[in-house]
Amino acid sequence: MIRVIIPSHLRSLTKIDEEEVLLDIKGDATQRAVLDALEARYPSLLGTLRDQKTKKRRPFLRFFACGEDITHEPADAPLPEAVVKGDEPFLVIAAIAGGRSAS
Amino acid sequence: MSGVRVLVGTRKGAFVLTSDAKRKDWEVSGPHFAGWEIYHVKGSPVDPNRLYASQTSGWFGQQIQRSNDGGKTWEQVGNSFQYEGEVGEHQWYDGSLKPWEFKRVWHLEPSLTDPETVYAGVEDASIFKSSDGGTSWQELPGLRNHGTGPKWQPGAGGMCLHTIILDPVNHSRIFVAISAAGAFRTDDAGETWTPINKGLQSLYIPDPTAEVGHCVHRIAMHPSRPNVLFMQKHWDVLRTDDGGDSWREISGNLPTDFGFVIGVHAHEPETIYVVPIKSDSEHYPMDGKLGVYRSRTGGNEWEALTNGLPQKDCYVNVLRDAMSIDALESCGIYFGTTGGQVYLSSDSGDNWSPIVRDLPAVLSVEVQTLS
Predict the structure, then answer these.
(1) Do A99 and B57 touch (CB under 8 A)?
(2) What is the CATH number of the domain that holds A54?
(3) What's the pTM value of the predicted model, to 2 decimals?
(4) Sequence-distant (≥ 6) Cβ neighbours of residue B8 within 8 angstroms
């Protein structure tokens, strides 16, 4: 099982209290497979992590694992062994940056 | 028993303020969607318990929420806003061209006749329609494809379609306003659109009287006179008496004619309200004194309404969707500030008091008059 930690803003959409989500990935465990499984489990997250049509990652989201920023790794690259085994979580992080002001 | 429900969108969540018709004692519920920016919440005129909310975030994108019980509970509905066909290009701040890219929903306008139908004004500027209660959204691409898109440019807040007015008599007619493109009208339910900016003068564009490029901040209509519109532009307050075919300035004796909001009294179609803001670089009231200005003559002659509003050290702003007016016999005027206050006058503007004073920065205020 892969452990995924999502930010509190997204937990308010999935309506879960736990910080961590456990995902059973069929086939190769990759960034794309994790995001596919996460969206399949929680359709309320559609559009919050990646564009619904292009599947492009939203610009202010980052993915960390094993103390590394793996955001820019290829979407189909295998995730670190420790994440696949469930020893380490796959973290979805909201970057320290802001949206534009309204006026 | 009649009463009011005030739907407040803020930088960090939505709040629902309710009171009976006396508007003295208020119940505050919220924050709903805590931590998210709520650009707008509005109820269906046909079914007041049906609400729509625009929940948005620079990080996590757009959500639309729907309530069937006046805001007690909510359900997440469709959030896919896809432009139709070629997206085209608009001006960027530096004058270069940039393709349209969806960012957020600024304004939700429920249909006057069907609670399942709702329009969305979005950034980058366009209008979308849902006929299934917000589950799916289709663009009305005739507006974006008007042909003037390369001359549209973002205002300070982005290139947003922020005002949608549905004509209560001619159901094929819709007015919209875009910063910074101007006002547009359709007479065929959104198939084709015409810029309606004749009479506007904007010194910040190369041709001050151009067909498009104007930074319109807000338009208001009284339902009994759908051909009369009032406009707060970036600078200047204007009116039209011919459905937007021509506009004339009515700033008159206002101390500054910059501002964002404009509203019309529920029972007096020639009584209008603005909140003058010092300038486009200083988004706060003149001299630290917050004042609503009222004209009972449809413009030009304005009086300051300050009783109960801070008259010293006040440097808040009142954003474009943050004024609303109820339809009770003694007409109530509401507005919210970037300082988190929501002010109410239950006597047409003569006296003001805060309903709440410490919310997050207020982005929008909509009042529902309940019977």
Answers:
(1) yes
(2) 3.10.20.30
(3) 0.95
(4) B14, B15, B16, B17, B30, B41, B336, B342, B356, B359, B362, B364, B365
